[in-house]
Write a structure and sequence with these properties.
This protein is α/β, with parallel strands linked by helices and about 170 residues long. It has 2 domains: about 80 residues, SPOUT methyltransferase, trefoil knot domain (Alpha/beta knot); about 80 residues, SPOUT methyltransferase, trefoil knot domain (Alpha/beta knot). The protein is about 30% helix and about 25% strand. A 4-stranded antiparallel β-sheet has the order 3-4-6-5, covered by helices on one side. A hairpin with a 7-residue loop joins strand 3 and strand 4. Helix 1 packs across helix 2 and helix 1 runs parallel beside helix 5.
């Protein structure tokens, strides 16, 4: 849970506000039952504080609910959506929306080479490397590097946000 909460915090919150131009989708695919995605939409998000306990509470409340079917976007609270599906569904949606999709990989191109005029989507793993299935799904996308060291996910998100803000 800590990994998820820190990722949401790093992606969406700035001092005294929310990044309205940023979304984050959490993929929960490791437990029993169907895959689930929780989407935090920065443009419409409201009522969430940037502390870990508040964000964790939102996620825990969603986990108590049945997983919606794939294709159903269930707004649980303003700007937070629960939906079925996994990485494949997110990649399809991003492709359909015209996103330039990037995978964080130490062997990729330096992040400074990004074309910032595009709608950008970033895929990063949690504390474990991507599974073989995930690697097959993301193999066609652009690899972007933040350096040669394996960093924690929330640190990666912070570096990406900083780079895009400059």
């Amino acid at each position: 849970m800590d990994v998820l909460v820190r990722a949401v915090n790093a992606a969406l919150f700035v001092s005294h506000g929310i990044r309205r131009d940023t979304d984050i989708t959490l993929h929960l695919c490791g437990g029993p039952g169907p895959d689930r995605r929780i989407w935090f939409n920065g443009e419409t998000l409201s009522g969430v504080r940037p502390d870990e306990r508040s964000i964790a509470g939102q996620i825990k409340a969603i986990l108590k609910r049945p997983v919606p079917p794939i294709g159903v976007l269930d707004e649980v609270t303003q700007g937070i959506f629960d939906m079925g599906g996994g990485l494949a569904e997110t990649l399809t949606e991003w492709h359909d929306e015209g996103f330039s999709i990037h995978i964080l990989d130490a062997e990729g191109d330096a992040i400074e080479t990004l074309d910032r005029k595009e709608n950008l989507g970033f895929i990063l793993s949690d504390h474990l490397p991507f599974s073989e299935t995930d690697k097959q799904q993301i193999s066609e996308f652009i690899k972007i590097s933040l350096g040669k060291k394996w960093l924690q996910g929330h640190a990666c998100i912070t570096i990406i946000q900083h780079t895009l803000d400059v």
